[in-house]
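Discussion board: Methods & Data

I've been asked by a reviewer to show the raw model output for two of the constructs in my manuscript, not just the figures. I'm not sure how much to include, so I'm pasting the format here to get opinions. Each protein appears as its amino acid sequence followed by a line of discrete structure tokens. Is this the kind of thing reviewers expect to see in a supplement, or should I convert it first? Here is construct A:
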Amino acid sequence: MELIPIKERLEDNKEFTDNPICQDSIYMSVDFYKKIGYNVPWICYYASLDNKLVGAAAFKGKPVNSRVEIAYGVFPAYQNKGIGAQIANTLVKLAHDTDPSVTVTARTLPEENYSARLLRKNGFKLLGSIMDDEDGEVWEWEYIR
């Protein structure tokens, strides 16, 4: 699994803006940087496997109070193949390689769904429900080493 950085400015991401699979997410990522800043490695990425873009990955900003939240998604053609777990694990490894003291978190809808099962199977523990400013009630997860 390779994480390919999404650059800060749209004009620097030609390989993604020209790719139909990236059309929605590339614009969202560049807009997201305008809100949270561009702090490598705490940025957005595309996930590549065998030289094919299979999904997207992101840190939802740089760590705050030694905590960083991850987000990930798998493109429809590659779903249900374990790729989401690979993306999540790659983000966790990048976070810990960058700052071994950081705690990695994730948020999901407050229901037993694919993301909840994926996180649970990959070393995350459910902390409980919290209110998210943008998403309302969500479950918060923490990676346990």
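Construct B, same format:
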Amino acid sequence: MGRVTVHVADSALSALDTEAHNRSISRSQAVAMAIESFISGVNQASLEAHNLKAELSGSREEVMRLRQELSKLSDRIAEKIKP
């Protein structure tokens, strides 16, 4: 297990101590949980962004397909209403 030393504002340290006390855990445990939460949150956000990009790409392809279909149908309608 590694050791990390950081500088934090007094107000953040006080809030950390209060939160650790409320959860009945040590300051070290609270910091470790915060780091793990931050890391998993970043990974989750990255995965969500990837999924949204894939969904957007699929939606764009669908729009292109529907535009082509609409164009074909418009041409057929124009042929049918010719005098």
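Answer (T.O., handling editor elsewhere):
This is acceptable in a supplement if you add a one-line summary per construct. For B, something like: Residues 45 and 51 are 10 Å apart (CA to CA).
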